[in-house]
Amino acid sequence: MSPHLLSVDPPPPIWIYDFRDRPDLPDGPLAPTEYNGRHARVAALLRDILDFHRLEFGWRSHDGRGGRLALFLDSPRHGGWSDPYLGYLGLTGPRTYEGRDGRLYRFDDFAVSADYAAHEFQHLVTHACAELGASTPEAHALNESLSDCFAIAFRHWRARKAGAAARAVDWRFGAGVALEPLSCTRNLAEPGDPRAWTPGFAHWSEVRPNEKGVVDGYALSLVASLAFRRVAYALGEDVLAPARIWQAALADPRMRGVKTFAGFADLTLSTARARWREAEHAVQAGWASVGVAPGAPIIV
Questions:
Q1: How far apart are CA 221 and CA 215, in angstroms?
Q2: Which of 87, 57, 69 is nearest to 248 (CA)?
Q3: Does residue 186 sit in helix, strand or coil?
Q4: What is the radius of gyration, based on Cα positions, of the chain?
């Protein structure tokens, strides 16, 4: 059987490749696989992610222009990456990782997690709009924060779409995937959460190098994520309000020159001022509350 071509409305098609039982990326075509329930769940999840970006932000596929997508299930490469012609999404199954304390921690199936699928897809969107990557800890942190924030926004949107009653936003990224004794992967509302896989910083003034002498990008990302969370709170705990501002800032051509938190803060503020004046103060206050303002030091 060839890779499964799934149509979405509107396009693009999505090619799903299953690397189960393969140790590496093949040079040639993949071996046929059965279309099972997990494939269907991942397909439905990706359709919802595409709908989320199209309906809420007017953004089609990963590149805004309806570009094609290829999903690699259980491939050796986890994450999102792209070239000018195709977006690639790699999502793995359950895993066990060794923590900083030497203990083993279990994670459930990333591939069917709304948080993780949306997080990795957002890396594709960010790549289409910016040149962040992991060139510096700060650029890496901004990249990861964007993916965490949009993952929370998508999960909340999807729950409401499925008919869930209105309730407070759960700001724990990876809740339900990071298994006991962990509570989540990162907590965007409480960056220092001791039960998160990656605790981090809540304010620019707290940022310090780790034991290796470098600033960890994931820990640093929580500074920007907390600003997003506080903007949402100021706007009535509406997670989609800052998401619209953040995505409009990402789509701005000036985003190509942004490499720092302060640069992105400036762009979100100018975006709010131009298009959502009622949110201008909340955006400015949100960034200021975590110590990010024009002229903030650059972490290299």
A1: 10
A2: 57
A3: strand
A4: 19
Per-residue DSSP letter, 214: S
Of the options 3.30.300, 3.30.70, 3.90.1480, 3.30.2010, the CATH number for the domain spanning 1-91: 3.30.2010
Strands (E), the chain: 4-6, 14-18, 68-73, 79-82, 86-91, 95-98, 104-107, 172-173, 186-187
Give me the residue label for tokens 């994670």: 107
Per-residue confidence at 10, pLDDT binned at 50, 70, 90?
low
Report phi then psi at 293, rounded to 5.
Answer: -150, 165
Here the tokens at position 37 are 């329930």
Q: Cis peptide leading into 11, omega within 30 of 0?
A: no
Domain ranges within the chain, ordered by starting residue: 1-91, 130-161+168-300
Given this model, what pLDDT does residue 3 score? Answer: 43
- Specify whether the CB–CB gap between 73 and 91 falls below 8 A: yes
Q: Which two tokens stand for residue 248?
A: 């409009």
CA 178 centroid distance within chain: 16
CATH topology of domain 130-161+168-300: Neutral Protease; domain 2 (1.10.390)
With the C-alpha atoms ordered 51, 41, 243, 135, is the resulting torsion angle positive or negative?
negative
H/E element, 6: strand 4-6
Average pLDDT over residues 199-215: 91
90 contacts 74 by C-beta, under 8 angstroms: no
The beta strands (E) that lie in 28-164 are given as 68-73, 79-82, 86-91, 95-98, 104-107
